[in-house]
């Protein structure tokens, strides 16, 4: 693959992207009207898109060199495939630039891996679709995207998108992407006949949804099925449930480091009791409705694997031997044995995690005690123990009742108090020994926690003696 990111300027690329989004309008406007969202540009903007692309081609010296633009996307089937192909066709028919599009669609999960590998090796495609947030921001920081603010202004594009869509296409105050499908809903299909048969009304709140699930379980019907092998599907609904409970603020605070995933919204969405309640009702249904052993085994393993991946997705652990052991134990078991084995698996999963958590936090605390003079941060500690910073921060608070950063500061101040009381070392020397290389900052931190400056504290200790 050729690295042509530098060869084609932002003007040419974004003009093409604008036209692609414009072309999406024909298929998206009907959906937008019914869903209350307007994420597509007006159809009449096609001419301006082609005009912008021609201008971009002129700026890049379009009379020479390769005039093929490589476009990576996930439009392998259905409406996505048809939309991208239609957009490309319309661009090539209307543009006078002479550029053609090499369309390279890839299945969703494989695409993510392919894009990461390409970026890591410096072989970025000319144009690509990606998800907003973390992945997009990383690509921008790596230099594989260019700001498009001037083009948004030149072609009046801001007025064509929802504010929320533009926000997700922005990073550090600049627009780097054209919104295509970043304002969407997470829908749940339901069996109308089954609802009528069981006398269940369509739920309109989370509480009503939980009540409906209880009714189905009592009748021996599994309420939900979800293909959660790649894990993002389960996390998507988890995030929706957490957002419904607490809104966006808990997510924003956790991402900024001002909050943690111990927030009640996240606990509500994934607490142990909910898992236990659901499985208990399932076991009752297995017994009451004489479900087949094969069906019971399948449901047991599906539930257990979903819980496993949901709870350990951010620890960096990839070993699946526990699931393999469960599969072997359940295979060939009768209904009662399958439920018993799965119940033990879930219980051990939560208890085992608790044991591992306490061991991990113990190691982190020892590391802090023995290295107070070092540059200690949650990120550096997490890296040493192969977990994410958010995960470590959440666990530390859960086990100790205190934030990791607060614990580091408290231990440094305690050590400073001891040194001020038992040695004749200068305040500046003590400051460095407890991890503060700026003595003024050390004095401020000390006074904030103790109420007096280090010098004043030493004088008070000496007077008492």
Protein model, in words:
The chain has helices at 10-35, 46-59, 78-94, 108-120, 134-141, 149-154, 163-168, 192-198, 206-218, 232-246, 249-256, 264-270, 272-288, 293-312, 321-330, 335-370, 378-384, 389-400, 404-422, 427-433, 439-450, 454-464; strands spanning 68-73, 100-105, 127-128, 170-171, 174-175. With 465 residues, the chain is mainly alpha-helical. It folds into three domains: 10-175, D-Maltodextrin-Binding Protein, domain 2 (3-Layer(aba) Sandwich); 192-343, no CATH class; 403-465, Arc Repressor Mutant, subunit A (Orthogonal Bundle). The strands form two sheets. A three-stranded parallel β-sheet has the order 2-1-3, with helices on one face. Strand 4 (170-171) and strand 5 form a beta hairpin. The longest helix is centred in the last third of the chain and has 36 residues, at 335-370. It is flat.
Offer a concise description of the structure.
The protein folds into three domains: 10-175, Periplasmic binding protein-like II (D-Maltodextrin-Binding Protein, domain 2), CATH 3.40.190; 192-343, no CATH class; 403-465, Arc Repressor Mutant, subunit A.
Which properties best describe this structure?
two-stranded antiparallel ribbon, 465 residues, Arc Repressor Mutant, subunit A, 5 strands, mainly alpha, 3 domains, disordered N terminus, three-stranded parallel sheet, D-Maltodextrin-Binding Protein, domain 2, flat
């Amino acid at each position: 693959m050729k690295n042509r990111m530098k060869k084609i300027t932002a003007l040419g690329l974004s003009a093409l992207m604008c036209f692609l989004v414009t072309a999406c309008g024909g298929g998206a406007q009907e959906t937008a009207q019914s869903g209350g969202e307007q994420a597509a540009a007006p159809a009449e903007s096609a001419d301006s898109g082609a005009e912008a692309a021609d201008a971009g081609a002129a700026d890049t010296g379009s009379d020479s060199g390769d005039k093929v633009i490589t476009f990576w996307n996930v439009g392998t089937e259905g409406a996505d495939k048809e939309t991208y192909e239609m957009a490309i066709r319309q661009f090539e028919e209307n543009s006078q630039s002479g550029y053609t599009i090499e369309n390279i669609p890839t299945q969703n999960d494989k695409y993510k891996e392919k894009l990461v590998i390409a970026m890591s090796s410096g072989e970025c495609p000319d144009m690509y679709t990606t998800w907003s947030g973390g992945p997009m921001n990383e690509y921008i920081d790596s230099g594989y995207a260019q700001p498009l603010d001037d083009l948004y202004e030149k072609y009046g594009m801001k007025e064509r998108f929802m504010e929320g869509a533009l926000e997700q296409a922005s990073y550090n105050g600049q627009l780097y992407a054209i919104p295509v499908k970043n304002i969407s809903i997470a829908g749940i299909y339901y069996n109308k006949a089954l609802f009528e048969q069981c006398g269940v009304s369509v739920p309109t709140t989370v509480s009503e949804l939980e009540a409906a699930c209880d009714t189905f379980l009592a009748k021996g019907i599994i309420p939900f099925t979800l293909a959660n092998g790649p894990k993002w599907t389960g996390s998507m609904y988890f995030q929706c449930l957490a957002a419904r409970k607490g809104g966006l603020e808990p997510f924003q605070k956790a991402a900024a480091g001002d909050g943690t995933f111990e927030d009640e919204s996240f606990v509500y969405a994934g607490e142990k009791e909910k898992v236990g309640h659901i499985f208990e009702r399932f076991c009752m249904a297995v017994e009451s409705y004489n479900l087949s052993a094969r069906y019971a085994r399948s449901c047991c393993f599906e539930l257990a694997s979903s819980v496993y991946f949901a709870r350990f997705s951010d620890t960096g652990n990839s070993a699946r031997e526990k699931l393999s052991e469960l599969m072997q134990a359940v295979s060939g078991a009768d209904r009662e044995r399958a439920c018993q084995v799965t119940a033990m698996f879930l219980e051990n999963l939560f208890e085992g995690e608790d044991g591992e958590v306490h061991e991990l936090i113990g190691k982190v605390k020892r590391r802090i005690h023995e290295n107070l003079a070092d540059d200690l941060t949650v990120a550096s500690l997490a890296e040493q123990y192969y977990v994410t910073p958010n995960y470590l921060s959440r666990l530390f608070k859960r086990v100790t009742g205190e934030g990791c950063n607060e614990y580091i500061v408290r231990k440094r101040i305690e050590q400073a108090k001891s040194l001020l009381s038992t040695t004749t070392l200068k305040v500046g020397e003590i400051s460095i020994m407890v991890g503060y290389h700026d003595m003024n900052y050390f004095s401020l931190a000390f006074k904030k926690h103790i109420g007096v400056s280090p010098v004043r504290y030493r004088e008070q200790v000496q007077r008492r003696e």
